[in-house]
Amino acid sequence: MTTRILAVSSSDTTYFPLLRDMIGSFTRHLPDTISEFGCFDLGLDDDSRRWLAQYTDRIVEPKPHFGVSLPSDQSAKLGFLVRPFLREYFPGFDLYLWIDSDIWLQSPNAILAMLDGAGKHGMAIAHESERAYRFQRWLFLWTAKHFLLGYGPLTGARLLARPHVNAGLFAIAR
User: Fold this and answer.
1) Residue 150 to residues 95, 122, 143, 159, Cα–Cα distance (Å)
2) Looking at the predicted structure, is the pLDDT value of residue 79 above 90?
3) For helices 137-151 and 153-161, what crossing angle results, to 10°?
4) Neighbours of 32 (CB within 10 A)
5) Are 64 and 70 in contact (CB under 8 A)?
6) 3-state class of 9 per DSSP?
7) What's the predicted TM-score (pTM) here?
8) What are the pLDDT digits (tens) for 96-124?
9) What is each CA distance from 130 to 133, 135, 165, in whole angstroms?
């Protein structure tokens, strides 16, 4: 039986050059691995949609989820809210690979490991304690602020001390 794999990303017109480069790196390194590609249109212009149409006819506009309504100038945030609903937007696939539009693939190994992990264990995601991640003071302070405000001082501090995952690249079984 063939495993149907869908790679999914999202973009608006501002991030479209990054999406185009990501797709180029994908097609160079994984031409036979990924069954299809889907993209959430977070505000693409007509030229961007035309270019994208040569790689997929699965270009969809996301709906608001979790009761969150966003103004049109913040539609890029919908890219975060749609991730739990990939199966509903794109039914019929065995594995879903989310890949942010600003990822550039140098080697197929990370993607193949993600797909293998999701196939064997249900999900694979990148851990942020990887040696390639540099400490960024502003990001730590932003995260601390939102953990403390969102979860309170005790739980927020406990969560801040725990390892984090990166939602920009993951694979999940249907």
Assistant:
1) 32, 28, 10, 11
2) no
3) 140
4) 5
5) yes
6) strand
7) 0.85
8) 999 999 998 888 898 999 999 999 999 99
9) 6, 11, 10
